[in-house]
Design a protein that fits this description.
- There is one protein chain.
- By secondary structure, the chain is α+β, with helices and mostly antiparallel strands.
- 59% of the residues lie in helices and 22% in strands.
- It is built from two helices and six strands.
- A hairpin with a 5-residue loop joins strand 1 (14-17) and strand 2.
- It starts with a helix and ends in an 8-residue tail after the last helix.
Length: 216
C-alpha cells in the first residue's frame, strides 16, 4: 500500500540522473515488484530527444528499474535519482543535521580541551607549589633537628654551669672554713708563742735571781 502510494507520486514527471546530469525520460507508467523484503519501481518512460537543440520531443519508450534508495528527491516536475551513488535527500538532510551536531559536539570538545588544558596548567602549578612546600617542610625538619640538638647542648651547658656554680659555692664555703681555721691557727700560734717567750724570760730571771716581769 505504501509502495503503491509512493509509486503514484512518480508518474508524469521527468527523471533526471544526478550523477550524469542527463534527463533519462518522462514517466508515463510505473509498476512495483517485490522480492522478499525488498521492492523495486519499474518506470515506463518516454525518451526525450534533441532537448538541447530546442526541439525536444518524447520518442521511444524505455524502462528503468530503481530502488527507493536510488531516489534522491521527488519534486513537482522532476524525479532526481542518484544511481545508488547519492543518498536520498532526507539522508543528506540528516547528514547535514548530523554535521551540525558534530560541529556542535566538536565545539564543546574544544571547549572541554581548553578546560582540560587549563586544569593541566593548574595541576602543574599545584605540583610546583607542592614540591616547594615539601622542600620547605624538609628545611623545617632539618631546622627542627638542629634546634633539638642545640637545645640538648644548651641543657648540657646549663647543667655544667649549675655544677660550676655549685662548685663555686662549695669553694666559697671552704674558703670560709679555711679563714676560720687560719684565724684559729694564728690565735693558737700567737698564744703558744707568747707563753713560750714568757716562760723563757721567767726562767732567765729566776736564774739571775730577778723577779718576773709583766711587760708581756
Amino acid at each position: 500500500m505504501v509502495a503503491s502510494e509512493k509509486a503514484n507520486q512518480l508518474i508524469s514527471k521527468f527523471v533526471v540522473s544526478l550523477t550524469t546530469g542527463k534527463i533519462l525520460g518522462y514517466v508515463t507508467d510505473i509498476n512495483v515488484e517485490v522480492e522478499g523484503d525488498r521492492f523495486f519501481f519499474i518506470l515506463k518512460m518516454k525518451v526525450v530527444e534533441n532537448l538541447g537543440k530546442g526541439q525536444g520531443m518524447l520518442t521511444s519508450e524505455t524502462k528503468l528499474t530503481i530502488e527507493p534508495g536510488d531516489i534522491v528527491n521527488v519534486g513537482p516536475d522532476v524525479i532526481i535519482i542518484g544511481d545508488g551513488k547519492v543518498p536520498p535527500l532526507r539522508e543528506i538532510e540528516n547528514l547535514t543535521q548530523l554535521r551540525g551536531k558534530y560541529e556542535e559536539v566538536l565545539t564543546q570538545l574544544r571547549e572541554k580541551e581548553a578546560v582540560v588544558s587549563s586544569l593541566r596548567e593548574e595541576v602543574t602549578s599545584l605540583r610546583r607549589q607542592l614540591d616547594e612546600a615539601q622542600r620547605e617542610l624538609r628545611r623545617c625538619e632539618v631546622m627542627k633537628e638542629d634546634f633539638e640538638h642545640l637545645k640538648e647542648q644548651i641543657l648540657k651547658q646549663e647543667g655544667e654551669l649549675e655544677m660550676a656554680r655549685e662548685y663555686i659555692r662549695v669553694l666559697e664555703g671552704m674558703r670560709e672554713d679555711i679563714d676560720g681555721i687560719r684565724k684559729l691557727v694564728e690565735g693558737l700560734v700567737g698564744e703558744t708563742l707568747e707563753g713560750t717567750v714568757r716562760r723563757i724570760i721567767d726562767e732567765e730571771l729566776n736564774a739571775r735571781g730577778l723577779k718576773k716581769t709583766g711587760f708581756l
